[in-house]
Structures are given as C-alpha cells and as structure tokens.
Amino acid sequence: MEGEYYKTKESVQEYITLAADASGKELIEKLKKQLNPNAIVLEVGSGPGTDWNILNDSFSVIGSDNSPEFLKHLKTENPFGEFLELDASSLKTAKMFDAIYSNKVLHHLSDQELKDSIKRQSEILNTNGIICHSFWRGVSSEVFNGLYVNYHEKETLKDFFAGYFEIISIENYNEFDEGDSIILIGRKK
After folding, report:
1. How many domains does the chain have?
2. How would residue 11 be classed by pLDDT, with cut points 50, 70 and 90?
3. Which range marks the domain in which residue 89 is found?
C-alpha cells in the first residue's frame, strides 16, 4: 500500500480537507524575487492546487502531479490550466522551464531518487533557471499514511544540489513547529 495514499478519490478528498489552510505563499514570495513576471514555472506535485493558484497569479505556471486523482481535481478546478502527469524523480517531459517549484513534495523521494530528480531538473531548466523547494527538516525517514517521508538537514541538501545548482539561499522556517522546515532556492550552474 506504500505510495498509494494520493491515488484514491477518498484519500485525495481527505488531503484537500486537511490541507485547506496550508499554502506556500511565503515561499512563493521568496521565489518572486528571483524571477521576472513572464517566467514559465513548473510546479512539481500540485496536489490540491493551492500553490498552483498563487503561482498562476504571477507566472505562466504548468502544474504536475503523479496522482491521476489529483490531476482530475486540478483540471476540474482549473479548466484552463496546464497539468502534466509527472513523477518527481524522473520528470519525463520535453518542456523547458525558467523555474521549478515544489512545496513539501521532494521529501517523498529516497536519497537516490532525489539525486536523480535534481539532475533532471537541471536538464529541463533554461539557462540560469531557478529552483525553489521546501522540505521537512530532520535526520530520519518514515512511512506516514502509506507514504515514504525522507527528512533532510541543510548540509545534506547542499551536498545533493551543489553539483548542479548554485545555492542562493537555504534556511529553516516554521510550518508547524520552530525550524521544522527548510526552503532551498538555487540557480542552475
């Protein structure tokens, strides 16, 4: 059952209800400082579409998810939006982007899958492309609601991204508890 949580209509509705008050507005404000308004942004793991809508106010945004149920929801709620079915580790698309954004999505990847994703992100970003990702902070991993969650510290993330990205900023922030999260912003080398 691992990895199936976001695959059923019931679990997607449950998540939408649970995450109703959550958004990456503050993260997106930091991203805005790095991009011009006509930037093409890929959101990895659009889920309920909260951050997609915020991004769409400022950029040309293409959403994505690995869950067909989330994609159905996104397309119903945003009939004029563009959404791709993408796995966060392989990002199989021929499209190119000015920026890639995710909010608490890449922590579902193993260390190797994250390294694969980082390499692929650099390949689908235009010259000087920007990444903005948030992660849960910590040193272990667990399965939560059938989903793998891989916690990270700033130093580990710096090591993972350093081969492909110049780190513009990496800092702890508070989502639920003090310093429980990390935001990383980088520029393609």
Report:
1. 1
2. low
3. 5-188
